Amino acid sequence: MKKFIILDDVFDEETVAAIAAFDYGRDDRWYALGSNPHHEKILEICARHFALDGMVGYEMWRNDSNPGWHARHVDKDERLYHEKKQFAYPLCSAVYYPVVEGVVGGEFYTDDARCFPRTNRLLLFSPGTFHGVSGYSGQRISIGLNPWSRRI
Question: What's 45's domain CATH number?
């Protein structure tokens, strides 16, 4: 059974600001457990809803633009897929919105659910869930986080 969970007002102001200000670099990056206590608060919430047994770390990235690649996709081990056309999924997926200001559009969608971005909103969903984001205007920062049971 697939899960899609929407949680609002999940963190205090200090945590929201720390997550928004973090330097995520240009692409997704790998983080070992214990790397960042603010981000690992997201993992703590994930663990309340998904089995994170055997988690060794997580990949994380920031998105504050509206490029065309927001089309429907699934979070997966990209290297494995490109090399062998095999799917391997994270233990779950999380999208956190530390900043949403004046946004029109930007609907996050799966085959079964829809929701709009909101500051301090956390979305959690099952592995293998295809999802996407509609076009938008305004300022929106989203943080994607995928816990893994093996290093990717």
Answer: 2.60.120.620
